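Continuing the batch. This is chain 6 of the set; chains 1 through 5 are on the previous pages. Same settings as before, nothing changed between runs. Recording input and output for traceability.
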Amino acid sequence: MKNLIPLFLAILLIGAGCVFQKESPVGVGEPVVVQTQYVNGIVEAYDDATNIASVRTATGATEEVLWPAGAQAASELFGTIVVAKGERDPSTLVVVAEAVDVPASQNLMVASPAIGATVTSPLVVSGFGRVFEQTFNWRIKDTAGAVIGEGIAMTDARDVGWFGPFTFEVFLPAMTETAFTLDVLDYSARDGSEQDLVSVSLNLLSTKTSTFKVYFEKPSQGNSFDCSQVFPVQRTLAETAAIGRASIAELLKGPTDEERAQGFSTSIPAYAALNSLVIGDRTAKADFTRDLEPGGGSCRVTAIRSQIENTILQFDSVETVVISVKGETDTALQP
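Output for chain 6:
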């Protein structure tokens, strides 16, 4: 099959983000601008009646592509990454493809940020992955190759053996140099060795930092009858405008090894994650995943609420904190 674009472009294009324009005169009057687009994504569905395939991009958006004659059947490509070249119908927004390429692909691919990009914190990373249980790892390394930040992320694959898009954000650690490397990788279930490693060299816009507090329990210092008593520890990260989300992200990580050695602990469940944090009219609305829902009685609930509230209330723009789980206000977590 005719190769439409090099593999590195296939990896870097996000959805219909790459647009080329050409003027096509039609009779008398102004020329019509025709947009040639490349849709890079995963084939997830196909309608025989309309000949339209649903292609999901690295950002999770779905593009509709009118499948071209002569291309490999869309129904044979479910879960596969393709690059469709065509023009968007302005009335239906369907991309009318003139050709479809199936580029060679590895199990993890980073679509954004591009190699050499200058970025800020949080760093938003998107791409495609085909990994065991949809889970893979990321890490941040400094210029000496030392790991200064790491975590896990997940793809959103629709079926076993399919590629799935992923998007995650990283609140970058404080750095003394602007150059750093983002690694996306998986570990072998057999021997723990690295596999499917993708390294992206990046540059941080500034080495300025943001400093804030997160609140944990410290039983050796607190009142055993006061479940709401928590104590601050300081965090310093790369400068970020999203300092509220950064503080919750650090809170959810729990105490560091050094802080645990000093007696700090957390009541927040290990797999709890923040869905959103919205601040307006001096009220912060923090929504979490179901994993936040605690067991263990009212004292633990009080401790969780206190950790979250105190971490958010440190900011002058907030007077009230409303905690919800998957969009539903959890009355147990309210004052």
